[in-house]
Every structure is written in C-alpha cells, then in structure tokens.
Amino acid sequence: MPYTLSEKVRELEPYDPISGTYEIRLDANESFFNLPDDVKEEIKEIIDKTDFNRYPDPTAKKLTKAFADYYDLDPDNITVTNGSDEMLYLLASAMLSKGSRVVVVDPDFSMYGFYSFLSENDVFTYKKNDELNIDVDDLLSFAKENDADMIIFSNPCNPTGQGITADQARKLVTGAGNSLVVLDEAYMDFWNEPLLKEAHKYDNLIVLKTASKAVGAAGIRLGFAVANTTITKALRAIKSPYNVNMLSQEIGTCIYSHKDMLKVRRDEIVNNTGYLYEQLSKLTDNYHLPMKVYEPHANFVFLETEKAGDIFEFMLENSVAIRWFKKAGALRITSGSVQENNQFLLLFEKYIMKNILKTNR
Questions:
Q1: pLDDT tens for each residue of 2-12
Q2: Is 37-257 in CATH node 3.40.640.10?
Q3: Which of 88, 282, 300, 325 is most buried (CB neighbours < 10 A)?
Q4: What's the CA gap between 253 and 42, in Å, rounded?
Q5: Quick one: CA torsion of 300, 302, 308, 312, rounded to 10 degrees?
C-alpha cells in the first residue's frame, strides 16, 4: 500500500505571501529602515572573522546579553530562537501535550492556532468585541469555561494594532489560574504598556519579542522568549541545540549594541505611523466614507472597508503592496518612510475620487 500524507496536512497549502516586485512594500510590517552603512561595515568585519566550519554557540550567550542590555533584562530569563515561529511551535508541541486546550483570540496572528493544530491541541477561539478589543474579564471567563492550558495572543494585536494595557495584562496573568499565558509583544516597542520586564515575576507567563519589527532585522530571523528561570530552563532544553545560526547571532549582537540608533529609528516609525493614521482618518472623514480607521499602537494602520479587495488590487496595479484580509473585509497598511506613506495616501485619494465619489454621483 503506497504512503499517504497524514490527514492533518493533506489539504494544507504553503504560506503564500505577496509575490512580485513592487516599488513600495507596505504589506509585511517590516521596518522601512535598512541598516546604516557604518553598521554594515561592522558586519562585514564580523563575517571576515567568522569560522564557518564551526557550529554556532548553542546558548547564544553574546546575543542574549546584547538583547538583555537593550531591554534592561536578566540574561538568565531569556531564550533565543530562530524567529518567534520556532518558539510558537515549541510552545504548542513541547510545552503542551496532544489534546491540550489552547485559547486564541480573533482577529489575531493566525500562526498561534496553526501551530496548535499541527501539535494536535484543541483550539478554542475567543471573539473580540465590536471595537476589536479584548475584554479581560470575558477572556478569563472563556478560558476558565474551556479549561485552557494556554492562552496566547499578540499585544498590541497583529493585525488590528489594538492592545490591552499593562494593568489589564497583569489582571489576565494573575487571574488565569494554572493556565500558561503567552503575550506576544512583537509590536510593544511602538507602545508603552509592556510586561516584558515583569515576566520573571510570574510562574505562568512567557513574553515573546522579535528582531523583525522595530529592530529592523527581519532577514536574520531572531526571536526571544522572556520568562522566569524555571520556564526558561525548560524552553532552553526543548529547543534544538544549534537553533540560531552563527551569523544571525553575531549580526544580532552587533545591531542590539547600537541602542541610540535603534531608539531614534523606533521613534521615527512611531511618528510616521501616527501621520499615516491621521491622514487616513482625515480622508475618510472629509469624503464621508463608510470606512473605519483604527488608531494604531503598532507600526501599521488597520482599516475596515467593503472596498478592501478593490483598494488592494488598485494599489498593486500602482506598484504598492499592502495586506488584504479577505474574511475581515479589512486592510493593514504598514507605515513606510514619509515618501512611501505620502505616495500611498495620494493613491488612496485617487482611488476614492475615481471609484467611490464618481460612483456615488
């Protein structure tokens, strides 16, 4: 009898991001900053000194210290992974058992549920309210009703840009009982409501971070988990021994050492995102459009509209890539440079004039 794929993967399709070449990419929540030339020169020197025939440091000691210094953390509470996706899979497959009960929220980052599905956990989805916010009391009740082993969500949220405050997050963690709470703070650099520095105080909390957003190093795939020493010991034990390659470790160490540069760039991203939100809000108000623009706490703006698909295609035709959420009838626009944001806004207004106002006359 010939081999057949297992039922759980038989109908899966590979991840299919927007392909093609576009002048402006505002679809993946990346930083619009590339590394400055002086940092690139440092990296070239690092490459020249690298022994490619050797395995990387399994403890990522230098990178862990650089990350800890940047966020003022204890290195003993940090686990480094090959992007946050590796940690998400480890949480679902190793920190939990088959049949464990996982609570995710909707809308949110789809990979939380996906990795739980692959690991044969039972997934329960909490629906956010009409304002796309989490009611902490409702979420706690939902988790308790479903006897959750783990609660996981992004804060601020990808894709909505909304979030709960640090006080609300504390209430969730302390009220979760024996449930493990995973807060993905990938976008918290752009807000100021983190639990990152407090993660070690709780026996049921893991906070995730990434180098792919504010740090602007998506290409080297670095993720970090911060937790108390008991959880950290377990996370370090279940990860692959050489999970983060040598170059990513060295380059990441170099980038995190440039604290002032990273903070200046973060502030500029925050300012640009605020500008993009304000201008989109003005356009929808001035033209009385049936669209809802959500105030962001991340590096992107979330927009609900029945015209989402049309706007998405119009932007692609004009060499601008944004993200379209078909089921939600929404768009997510990553904040780019001032020039990129203005080009998007010009095209957005052009679409309004051509396809909405003209139709309504």
A1: 999 999 999 89
A2: yes
A3: 300
A4: 11
A5: 0
CB atoms within 10 A of CB 320: 22
3-state secondary structure the chain: CCCCCCHHHHCCCCCCCCCCCCCEECCCCCCCCCCCHHHHHHHHHHHHHCCCCCCCCCCCHHHHHHHHHHHCCCHHHEEEECHHHHHHHHHHHCCCCCCCEEEEEECCCCHHHHHHHHCCCEEEEEECCCCCCCCHHHHHHHHHHCCCCEEEEECCCCCCCCCCCHHHHHHHHHHCCCCEEEEECCCHHHCCCCCHHHHHHCCCEEEEEECCCCCCCHHHCCEEEECCHHHHHHHHHHCCCCCCCHHHHHHHHHHHCCHHHHHHHHHHHHHHHHHHHHHHHHHHHHCCCCCEEECCCCCEEEEECCCHHHHHHHHHHCCEECEEECCCCEEEEECCCHHHHHHHHHHHHHHHHHHHHHHHC
Which residue did the predictor score with more confidence, 218 or 358? Answer: 218
CATH classification of 7-30+261-360, choosing from 3.40.640.10, 3.90.1150.10, 3.10.290.10, 1.10.8.60?
Answer: 3.90.1150.10
Q: What is the dihedral of CA 163, 122, 243, 159, to 10 degrees?
A: -30
pTM value is 0.96
- Least confident range of 17-21, 112-116, 214-218, 347-351: 17-21
297, pLDDT greater than 80: yes
**pLDDT single digits (tens) 156-183:** 999 999 999 999 999 999 999 999 999 9
User: Per-residue pLDDT tens for 225-284?
Assistant: 999 999 999 999 999 999 999 999 999 999 999 999 999 999 999 999 999 999 999 999
What's the average model confidence in pLDDT over 326-340? 97
Please, what's the b/e burial string for 8-28 (b: 16 or more CB within 10 A of its CB; e: otherwise)?
A: eeeeeeeeeeeeeebebbbbe
**Mean pLDDT score of the chain:** 96
| Extents of the domains making up the chain | 7-30+261-360, 37-257
- Residue pair 207/193 in contact (Cβ under 8 Å)? The answer is no
